């Protein structure tokens, strides 16, 4: 396959034990669990992150936008106080189960010969291959996915259930015999986390329509009820499970060097220092040629 192994892999951290999914394969590295960030003294958090930097060189913290504000604030405070460009705070717009799946994919890739900047950038790339959603008993308090007024009204009807896709394209349908969600156009596995809702729709109807090749269940993340606006849900996320496929996706993208901190990245933004790639000036001759193309011929 051609991928090597780093001696000191980049640390992939999550903000709770429920976000550290079991290993997908024998190479998947364990997640670093930063538990209690919103409750512990600041010096404990500083010491924990400094130790990770000393041991691993770089740390990528993958966490949900549904974390308590105190957790997000603590992470940003620690990064600022340590004055470190070796801590990447990655908070993609995914539901909690999708965050846990993405963190595990990065843990898979952390065992390979990818530099910290490329590994951190890979998170953005891999989100495009995730389909994350939930089956909900109510959408009355759902504010992270666009919901029409009709759906809100129907959510008050006893027994109503809704299938919601939050990523990559928002979609909402009321469960009916012909209900379906747009799924991946490639072979994937499905992870399912059950809350306080009883239904076989996800593991049966959805998995069949998406041509799922492997299905596993996981405990529901603690942040899921807040993210979806209800505890009556079954959350799901489809993903690419094979490390060789993930590695090929990442290494097939052209790498750049961050003009600010100097590390290798893919894409136009460095996850560690947040610098964006400068706009490359168009050569003067090319500018003149473009101007001539837009000029109208003389009458």
UniProtKB/TrEMBL annotation:
The protein, known as: MobA-like NTP transferase domain-containing protein
Taxonomic source organism: Streptomyces doebereineriae
